[in-house]
Design a protein that fits this description.
Hypothetical 12.0 Kda Protein In Nam8-gar1 Intergenic Region, Chain: A; Arc Repressor Mutant, subunit A; 3-stranded antiparallel beta sheet; SDO1/SBDS_N; SDO1/SBDS_central; U1-type domain-containing protein; cytoplasm; Ribosome_mat_SBDS_N_sf
């Protein structure tokens, strides 16, 4: 009995991979990536393509190891450059995940969206925020579905607009300090009344007038432009104000990053303090110090040294290092992150 030896042709089998799939021109194209690297690439954290792709090869089926045909690549992408096609699939393709993993991701994103909605809205009758469980129930009632390809902040804005149509809920106001010459105040006062702005306090200093007021976040851009035209300046005191004097989220943009008090640091950042461990009297061997060249800082034992590489401080300095910027301290890093988040909130929440 004759036996025929059959060997696969044009196959390269890969295991333990994350697959990104893109359907184009009637064909399916896939690339093999390392797990947890695709999202890092899309968010801009990972810059090295070799750290994301297991191979610069386009497949028609990664699981079976079937390579995509050159003529199909040219018909769909207009070229057969594997690396450039991999980049396009990486940017536009759909990441394939298991059912339970996808369900967990959607559940976590749903919770994140509900949290943002809670922080940015109030009950107009009580001027207080709704609870997170109440927000989630309202989101279910409007049949909201999470879009995994859209940011949580953008979807939170859409949710707020939809909730305002059916329930007593509105955007919480932001608190500003407006400083301008007194003789220009009349021009500003008319607009403030038109915008239904609440004036909290007024302070006169020489020929300058300082006003603390609360207004709708969507009016900030117009207000800032008007104040600048009146030779004044605007300062953000709080992005979201809940209740009378109950500021849940305050970002002082004008303050120097070096003036941020240490007690404002998060618990994770506090763990990264650089105080060396003291040794008992009589100990002959000193505690071994490990230095992080990226952050230019000394750590204690090996465990603390490993934990440092997982911290937001180290990751922030890594991004600065790629831009040829010097490292900053833990306190400055926390203030820098808070300032960046504050400006990002203004860009996404002003409409």
């Amino acid at each position: 009995m004759s036996r025929t030896l059959v060997q696969p042709v044009g196959q390269k089998r890969l295991t333990n991979v994350a697959v990104v799939r893109l359907k184009k021109h009637g064909n399916r194209f896939e690339i093999a990536c390392y797990k947890n690297k695709v999202l890092s690439w899309r968010s801009g954290v990972e810059k090295d393509l070799d750290e994301v792709l297991q191979s610069h090869i386009v497949y028609s089926n990664v699981a079976k190891g079937v390579l995509a045909k050159s003529k199909d690549l040219k018909a769909a992408f207009g070229m057969d450059d594997q690396t450039k096609i991999c980049l396009e699939i990486l940017e536009k393709g759909e990441l394939q995940v298991a059912g339970k993993e996808r369900e967990s991701q959607l559940s976590n994103q749903f919770r994140d969206i509900a949290t943002i909605v809670m922080q940015k809205t109030i009950n107009p009758e009580t001027q207080r925020p709704y609870t997170i469980s109440m927000i989630e129930r309202l989101m279910h009632e409007i049949h909201f579905a999470v879009d995994p390809h859209s940011s949580s902040k953008k979807q939170a804005l859409d949710v707020i607009r939809e909730l305002e149509k059916h329930f007593p809920i509105k955007r919480s106001p932001m608190r500003l300090r407006l400083t301008l010459p007194q003789h220009n105040f009349d021009s500003l006062a008319g607009k403030l009344n038109e915008w239904k702005t609440t004036i909290v306090s007024k302070d006169e200093s020489g020929n300058q007038l300082s006003i603390v007021c609360e207004m709708e976040p969507g009016l900030f851009r117009d207000c800032d432009a008007l104040v600048r035209n009146l030779q004044g300046r605007s300062e953000i005191l709080a992005i979201s104000v809940h209740g009378e004097g109950d500021i849940l989220h305050t970002e002082d943009v004008s303050s120097s990053t070096k003036q941020q008090p240490i007690d404002q640091l998060t618990e994770d950042m506090q763990k990264q303090t650089l105080a060396p461990k003291t040794t008992k009297l009589g100990d002959q061997a000193a505690v071994k110090q490990n230095k992080c060249s990226t952050c230019d800082a000394l750590m204690g034992d090996a465990k603390e040294y490993r934990e440092h590489f997982k911290s937001d401080w180290h990751k922030h300095n890594l991004r600065r290092k790629t831009r040829q910027l010097p490292p900053i301290s833990a306190q400055e890093c926390m203030a820098d992150v808070q300032l960046s988040d504050s400006k990002g909130d203004l860009d996404e929440y002003s409409f």
